[in-house]
Amino acid sequence: MANLRVLCLEVTKRCNMSPPCRYCSAYSIKEEGEELTIDEEKRLLDLVSSFAKPLVLFTGGEPLMRDNLSELAAYARQKGLPTGLGTNGTLITEKEARKLKEAGMYRVAIDLDGTNEGTHNSLRGEFKEALRGCELCKDAGLSLQINSVITKVNKNEMPDILQLAQTLGADAWHVFFLVPVKGFEEDYMLSPEEYEESLKWLSQKKREAEIEIAATCAPQYLRFFGEVTRGEWKVARGCSAGISFVFVSHLGNVYPCDHLPVKAGNIREKDFKDIWDNAEVFQNLRSFNKLQGKCGACEYKDICGGCRARAYFHYGDYLQEDPACLYVPQNRQ
Question: Which of 112, 281, 326, 331 has the greatest count of CB atoms below 10 A from its CB?
């Protein structure tokens, strides 16, 4: 049975940013219908807490568009579930930060894709407001995490973004490597060579930095620590989609992650635990031997596995090889 470690709950598709971020994952999964009610979300948390204690990560859209987010976060904590919030930071006020703290929110992650208005606003917008959100979270005693999506536009600013995160007093800097989604411009994607170069730099900084550094949507990151981490990753691997990570949309649809639009079921129609344990897409993702191409032949597949969403976008098959990876498995040379 797979160990559920992160439940990403999309509490709304609504967002205050217009136009949306240039690479918004909302483009990945198009859905129409009535959003889950807070009672439906609470029932989901009831069920999840009965068999696992994952981090519940509230996301959107912009989750702070929900008036009752703090109530939902407090309910999750009552169930023994740690909570986190992924936000653009622009709607955080002193009052909102205090409510999140009182609700027992473990950490607030705010998006910063640059160190100045020019870079950040070209990708997301509202740089000054996001910085203000960071300051208000720290003032309220919340743990602050900075999230940065790395693209061709801001790749060279990575050292400066890390310095900014440390200056802001962040506890963590999570670096997201762009995953292609429908409707976004592929010109923002790093080349495989740039991707590899960035991962090498990040792996070095992880050893030196005073704050937590993590790479997301970058399973190859673990290859640089292969001999250290091998054996510790008993269930999850670099790409944890459907293995230890699950995404539940604002309509209750269940997916491996918010970039991989292969539906496993719907919590309004089927028991979530049954979906998590038995859905075909999850069973496939948990079997390393089903990986194809060079990912299937790779000696690091047990700790990396490649990005299944990138494979799906490029080949229409989430079990195919990751097109962003330069590494050639030894037995394919």
Answer: 112
